Amino acid sequence: MMASVYKRTLPVFLAGILGVTLGFSIMSATAGAANKKHLITDDGPVMQSAKVYAIYWQPPTLQNGAEGTMTPRQNKLVSQLLSDMQPGGMFKVLSQYSGYAHGRKQFVNPSQIRFGGTAFDDTAYPSSQKPCRKHSNCITEKQMRDEITKVMSENGWKPGMDSLYLVYTDIDENVCDSSGCSNSQDGGWCGSHYNAPQNGTQLLYGVVITPSDETCSNAESQSPDAPYLDATNGNMSTDGTLSTTTHEIAETVTDPLGTGWGDVKGNEVADVCSYSFAPFVHKTANLAVGNHLYQLSNLWDNKTNSCVSLGP
Questions:
Q1: Distances from the Cα of 168 to the Cα of 49, 90, 112, 239, angstroms
Q2: Domain limits for position 108
Q3: DSSP class per residue in the chain
Q4: Rounded-to-integer distance, Cα 116 and Cα 141, Å
Q5: Which of 284, 280, 268 is nearest to 309 (CA)?
Q6: What is the pTM of this model?
Q7: 24-58: buried (b, 16+ CB within 10 Å) or exposed (e) per residue?
């Protein structure tokens, strides 16, 4: 069957992918500050609850033979962030967003956005295929989805509208889909989320990439008028990975199938606030959960038409 591809950050809508429906959002490395436009919905479903799983797909070498350089500390910080979501009261602003499923109105319940689990896989990356041919270290969206399905089977995890699977590739491992590739000049991005039918329901999944340069770091990617940020968790690249993580979670929850919340240009609830961080609760952080400090970009509040902290 023919399927649609929804690109939520750039005002481009593509069609023509065969056999799978991909509703996805891009967290661009060049996105601006809030555009202060009201979000609208096509009345598609939202995720009332969400278990978020992290899959660390990080083999010892990349396709070109280079050594993998992702540190265990960065993975640990991602798991820490996901563990802090529920007790930290994150995503409170999302409670205002609703949708319809089976004729019934449903609202996002932020208290039910929680950590599902982790898996580490050091299986070698497959050989690059189209549209990856121009990148020496690259996997396709389909190869990433196959990896997720494999890990789900190994761990007894299930697809569904209450589960989100995020893949964390090694540093400088690109991911390409029909719209372009991560960390590249032909439509570069730092994270994306997708959906595809599986076993009579939907598989909701995404990827967060980490370049070796500052392309996706919080400092490099801020809007020009934003205050300079110092690193909260060791380096700006790590902070960027954490911020991209909450960005993709918020957008999947409010727009899981590409029929949920976005503005007239297709920007989702986190896109319109990309790299907006204030107010700060610490000199380098805008969210604290216990003694854990985070530098996470804000989310859109449709009631006040403004960017607000995703914390309580």
A1: 22, 21, 23, 14
A2: 2-308
A3: -EEEEEESSSS-EEEEEES--EEEEEE-TT--S------EE-S----SSEEEEEEEE--SB-TTSPBP---HHHHHHHHHHHHHTTTTTTTGGGGG-EEEETTEEEE--GGGEEEEEEEEE-PPPPPP-TT-TT-SSEEEHHHHHHHHHHHHHHHT---STTEEEEEEEPTT-EEEETTEETTSTTT--SEEEEEEEETTEEEEEEEE---SSSTTSTTTTS-TTSPP---SSSSHHHHHHHHHHHHHHHHHHH-TTSSSEE-TT---TTGGGTT--PSPSBTTBSEEETTEEE----EEETTTTEEE-S--
A4: 22
A5: 280
A6: 0.89
A7: bbbbbbebbbbeeeebebeebbbbbbbbbbbbbbb
User: Can you give the length of the chain in residues?
Assistant: 312
Structural domain tally of the chain? 1
Structure tokens given for 172:
């400088």
pLDDT tens, the chain, 312 aa long: 222 223 333 222 222 222 344 444 555 544 444 445 799 999 999 999 999 999 999 999 999 999 999 989 999 999 999 999 998 889 999 999 999 999 999 999 999 999 999 999 999 999 877 777 777 889 999 999 999 999 999 999 999 999 999 999 999 898 988 877 876 555 578 899 999 999 999 999 999 988 777 778 777 655 555 556 788 888 888 899 999 999 999 999 999 999 999 999 999 999 999 878 878 888 888 899 988 999 999 999 999 999 999 877
